[in-house]
Amino acid sequence: MKNNVSPDKKEAIFESALHLIHEHGFHGAPMSQIATHANVAAGTIYHYFASKDELILELFKYCRERTNEHIFNFDKDLSYQDKFFYIWDRLIEYYIANKEIFRFIEQFYSSPYYELVVQSKSPCYYGANHMLDFYEEGIKTEVIQKVSFTVFISLFIGSATSHVKGIVYRMVPVDKQDRKDLIEIIWNGIKNQ
């Protein structure tokens, strides 16, 4: 990507790509269509992104950063349990309010693009270090059981995304009590007794 990038144009490209990928998939959203949708000249989009692969990878980074800004925006003085509940609930709220981001991230993880990230980045790519730091805080302070990070993520993020899928795909109604019950069960399963 070249210098002198207009943040507004870049964001317009990201938002257009999100919308078109949601509607047509990765392969059904060519760069020319993304540029037109974003009101950017077809040649200009290549000023921002050298290829569609680069655009997709940068879009993933953009989505992850926006998500992390939302879910890790809490008072540092909260107890670990309160942070646990807060982060989980904020992730669900964010994905429900930003369905295109949720669907893009889900699609991205199931695509060959994710392999490019795995090959080129550390395990703490695009803000994953926030979740790793949160996990390590719980282990270090012995508030949660000593499980692997993989188990922690599967339990914490996996349950949140599964809950969001149920709501987004209209398999389950939006029910605050169900959400509260679910996080209580997760917390009771992982906290140190």
Automatic annotation (TrEMBL):
Keywords: DNA-binding. Pfam families: TetR_N. It comes from the Bacteria. The keyword Lipid biosynthesis does not apply. PROSITE patterns: HTH_TETR_2 (PS50977). Coiled coil: none annotated. One of its GO terms (molecular function) is DNA binding. This is Transcriptional regulator, TetR family. The lineage of its organism: Bacteria, Pseudomonadati, Bacteroidota, Sphingobacteriia, Sphingobacteriales.
